[in-house]
Design a protein that fits this description.
It is a single chain. With 118 residues, the chain is mainly alpha-helical. The chain contains 7 helices and no strands. Helix 1 packs antiparallel against helix 2 (19-45) and helix 2 packs across helix 3 (49-76).
């Protein structure tokens, strides 16, 4: 998780963050936490490595899906739904998947005009 946080910090304020880096960050942070929780839970009830691995993989995929959904809701959700103010990621200069897609599909002049990090 620490490596994911450090990578995210190092990528802050960069407009060249890509999907690969984004997925590395969320895999190291949110997904690794949920994967470990699911693995520990499985180990508490079975010694079957195939079941333990399946639960770990489930947790990892759940963590990735959760983080993508959370990042989308930061733009289109409501405070009532997400329990926190909207736009927190952009205020913290975090380049999340919705912003990566928006910057990639926008005209260069529009992306620079509408998203200044300096």
């Amino acid at each position: 998780m620490s490596e994911g946080e450090l990578l995210q910090i190092s990528q802050t304020r960069k407009l060249n963050n890509d999907e690969e880096t984004y997925f590395k960050i969320i895999s190291d942070k949110t997904a690794s936490l949920l994967a470990t929780c699911c693995e520990v839970g499985a180990r508490a009830v079975t010694e079957d490595e195939s079941k333990i691995n399946a639960m770990r993989e489930f947790g990892e995929n759940l963590g990735i899906a959760f983080q993508i959904r959370d990042d989308i809701l930061d733009y289109i959700g409501t405070k009532k739904i997400i329990g926190k103010p909207l736009g927190g990621d952009i205020k913290e200069k975090k380049i999340t998947l919705p912003l990566i897609y928006a910057l990639r599909t926008a005209e260069k002049s529009e992306s620079k005009k509408n998203y200044r990090l300096n």
